[in-house]
Design brief:
- The chain has 248 residues and is an all-alpha fold.
- It is built from twelve helices and no strands.
- The protein is globular.
């Protein structure tokens, strides 16, 4: 059900988005370096960040593209691999978008929902959902501006730095992206006892398929897909979410 017109404007949204943008700037710097190390051009790296606002999805995508660059060609399997990887990793944003529809005011038309849905990330979803009143297009535009600019600018500078700095320095700076992934899973790991086993299981499966010769035919993208889906399915059976918690 649509809510009344939101009391929040662009300015308040922008102020709420500045801390997110600053965080995205530092993390995307690491992504830019990673993409440059994989052999992507600076413009290609920037376009990835401007058209696909998802750190984990972009990292997985770069792994797939790195394989393409090494092979020197793009096959049908590579396209399927990329699509599946993005679907598995970014599916949560669709769920966030559905949940966020209950927090939108009457000015958020279908066209605006489709447009602003592109900018939904974990942090933007959390901030907009935490507002006591409904949010509208002006607030959401302000909220998304700083994170989008921060992510793009950090990526650009990281890609440039990756082409100029020594390999030892770029390798060290490239760890920033993985540090962010660890920071994301630590809080829920403390609250939910099923998260840690799921993470360890996914990591173990990934190592198994990466280093055991019998799985050498699997590319990096498919390793990510299989590890994530298998670990999630196994833990949903072994450690399901309680019914009351699921309803909440």
């Amino acid at each position: 059900m649509q809510k009344a017109v939101s009391p929040y404007g662009f300015r308040e949204g922008f102020q709420d988005g500045v801390p997110i943008g600053l965080g995205y700037f530092s993390v995307s710097f690491g992504f830019g370096i990673m993409a440059a190390s994989a052999g992507l051009f600076t413009l290609e790296t920037l376009l990835i960040s401007l058209t696909n606002l998802t750190s984990a999805g972009q990292a997985a995508g770069v792994k797939v593209l790195e394989g393409v660059l090494l092979a020197g060609k793009v096959g049908a399997a590579t396209v399927v691999e990329m699509l599946l990887a993005q679907l598995v990793i970014n599916l949560r944003y669709a769920l966030m978008g559905v949940a966020l529809t209950q927090r939108l005011d009457e000015n958020m038309t279908t066209g605006k929902r489709l447009f602003y849905g592109f900018f939904i990330t974990d942090e933007i979803f959390a901030v907009s959902s935490a507002k006591p009143h409904a949010v509208g297009p002006r607030y959401f535009a302000g909220l998304a501006t700083a994170p989008y600019i921060g992510w793009g600018l950090g990526t650009l500078l990281g890609a440039v730095a990756g082409n100029v700095l020594p390999l030892s320095v770029t390798n060290a700076l490239g760890l920033a992206l993985y540090a962010m992934f660890i920071a994301i899973i630590l809080p829920p790991m403390r609250q939910e006892k099923g998260v840690l086993p799921c993470v360890l299981l996914a990591a173990g499966l990934s190592c198994l398929m990466t280093f055991v010769p019998v799985f050498s035919f699997l590319s990096g993208g498919f390793v990510i897909i299989i590890s994530a889906v298998a670990a999630a399915v196994m833990m949903s059976i072994v450690h399901p979410v309680p019914e009351k918690e699921a309803e909440a």
